[in-house]
């Protein structure tokens, strides 16, 4: 960890705990800052806060008292999930107190260069593939951080200059960066998302674009050349641009030609050798290849990863084949586009399980992708909206209470050869704490179904 002096004896407020807040508070304390932590969860139910108190860090729990900001803080580190229109954040900005997220601190203390990955979809899969490719080239040369793995600052604290940090970054995190500068930035794609957090689409796109704002001509930007919006944005970057495309033979960057994965006119390997299914994963693979080749990974090492990588949990994850049905868990599909991508990846008839938090979408965009859907099972706040689209498509629609109730219905609606797919097209927060909890509930329900039928 770089021993920076800029926070020594500064008054710092860490707003919101979870893993990133705990890490930021601990590191700031080590750097000599006077740290106060504020979290909504009551102290008695907050083991993280209790642990920080034992370190000598001031802890205030149970609410976010607005008057706390009158105590002369010189910096606020906020949990990424707290929006900028939160009264505490709004007041801090009005008082001209700098507000950052924990990834900014991670960059400031890191001795390791950062490969930062953002985008609407594919972030986790792309980050994981890059991580595996770098480690295939040199063992322990990549550390996972950000939304995946451990908090960015905790990883940065222990990373060395001989390693890379493969860091997944959300728009929430990138909105709060000032000096953050990855050596390689990756933008997988940009679609409409998180409009409940951002004021409008423009703010969302600009948050993603922050990933490259401090890059120089010594750095690289790997970007989706199939999206005109992203292509046009590259005119504003100082970084060296490396394009990737699933539809164009570029001659530079990464692309597909005659069934082969290519990079700068060089054949990397056959697309048919890749284990990971789905057209949407091709974007993730091409972005990963661009990073790997830029950092000196060999074609053999790249293909070894692509021939063995089965995917990331909750992301079009194959669960089991039972009684001729293949069950897939795509709980990470928290927006319409992700579900469209999942449906495009299957040729067999699909029994689709969908629904969740209502963010105001109409779901009409799913209609063209329902041609392979034979039965639709809906739940959650958006059940009626998604069900309406299913009925327009002429699909039989079943309404159930939750994911657990959907699984036995899906089995009854299916037959051998069918795909049973959980791909909700919605966030989980109306019924489940996280998409992981929802995905695990789905997989547990499958296990219970098998046990019940085979009794």
UniProtKB/TrEMBL annotation:
Pathway: Cell wall biogenesis; peptidoglycan biosynthesis
Record GO cellular component, one term: cytoplasm
UniProt-listed Gene3D superfamilies: Mur ligase, C-terminal domain (3.90.190.20), Mur-like, catalytic domain (3.40.1190.10), NAD(P)-binding Rossmann-like Domain (3.40.50.720)
Domain (Mur ligase central): residue spans on this chain: 117-292
Annotated Mur ligase C-terminal domain residues: 314-426
Molecular function GO terms recorded: ATP binding; tetrahydrofolylpolyglutamate synthase activity; UDP-N-acetylmuramoylalanine-D-glutamate ligase activity
EC annotation from Swiss-Prot or TrEMBL: 6.3.2.9
Residues binding ATP: 119-125
Catalytic activity: UDP-N-acetyl-alpha-D-muramoyl-L-alanine + D-glutamate + ATP = UDP-N-acetyl-alpha-D-muramoyl-L-alanyl-D-glutamate + ADP + phosphate + H(+)
PROSITE patterns: FOLYLPOLYGLU_SYNT_1 (PS01011)
Cellular location(s): Cytoplasm
Family: Belongs to the MurCDEF family.
Protein name per the record: UDP-N-acetylmuramoylalanine--D-glutamate ligase
Species in which this protein is naturally found: Listeria welshimeri
